[in-house]
Hints:
40% of the residues lie in helices and 21% in strands. It is α/β, with parallel strands linked by helices. It folds into two domains: 4-121, Rossmann fold; 131-224, Orthogonal Bundle (Arc Repressor Mutant, subunit A). The protein has a five-stranded parallel sheet with strand order 2-1-3-4-5, sandwiched between helices.
Amino acid sequence: MDLKILLVEDDAQFAEAMAEELRGFDHSVTVAADGSAALSAVDSDSFDAVVLDRMLPKVDGIAVLERLRRSDMTVPVIMLSALGRSVEKVEGLEAGADDYVVKPIAASELNARLHAMVRGRRWTAGGGDTLQAGDIVVSPTRFRAWRAGVALDLGKLEFKLLAEFVANADTVLSRAMLVERVWGYDFAPTTNIVDVHVRHLRMKLTAAGGDDPIVTMRGVGYMMRS
Length: 226
């Protein structure tokens, strides 16, 4: 899978070396040296993925991410940073990153993560581009969802959470499973992040007066009825 990648990195030597190695995997790589240049590049071109340094001049990586997600840009983003504490990972992921990688990282590992991330975004099921549970339909490829034919206005994480529920309808998903599959954490968050997002998702699913399709399994997690 050849990808069109935006690499955002202010360390010119590192950026040049990483871009060259990624091109060795047959990817097309555009380099931006700061946050402002990154936002301009995304506005003027389309990319399969963004590799985004966290500590950037002009506009830092977190601010870049937040602006992208506020603009409903769903381009997959790997945040690359020398900051590797759990709280910093959580901040990056909650800002909208699909993955968070601590420097240094080998180009081969970054390439594998890019493939896995983009593969997940392009995933389809049953030979079509939609999944369904009851009156809820999700299109993973188009990042759209409907209930009873009415489009749902969902944030990125709410959409990913709903897609996970629909793909596993009538199956109990523990909080740990949801944290791993939706947020991509390889550690247990210290907040009730899953419960908060499930609550927001429930509100949107029932806004038109429909029944709540998500069942709370006390002490375990959640399940969506089909």
